[in-house]
Amino acid sequence: MINRTKIIAITLTGALAAAALTGCGGSSSSAAPSSVSTAAAESSASSAAVSSVVDNAENGTDTLDGIYNALLEQDPISNQFEIAAMNIEYDFGLKAEDVVSYKGVKSNDNGDAGLVLVLEAADGKAEDVANQLAAYQQDQVAFYGNYAEFAQAQDNVENAVIAFKDNTVVMVIASNECTADLDSAVDNALA
């Protein structure tokens, strides 16, 4: 019986030591691989769930690529983050059945709300998509309004251009470095 008690005690001590070492952190370089693999696993799971929700929406088509490239030339987005299917539904609040295809990037810099997003809406849904993008715009105005240091980004979001023609919907938010007339750029791109 004493040997069994010692084995249990040694096993518990080892488990506690392992938990303490794991829970106490460690160097940032040893934590990164674990975080990256966890994030990758979560991203894969999220992407799989969203791809089933977003039906057959594509990331870009030839028609969208032309409009997207023209707008991105006028509004070069700093530190670009590509908009994915997950962002379409969860960030912008768009219904999966309302979006056929999309192409876009947003700035990944703090305090820069720059965005170029072009969507092909399902038939008869362009106005609904534009209205939902306007709701997203108001959420972003409120978000940036919480931070005095992001006044430029808040102003840019307040002046976002949201437009649609037929089934093509566009939302453009000036990047902090943008000096182009985005109203004209959107009009030209949708012409």
UniProtKB/TrEMBL annotation:
InterPro entries: DUF4358. This is DUF4358 domain-containing protein. Residues 1-31 form the signal peptide. It holds the Pfam family DUF4358. Keywords: Signal.
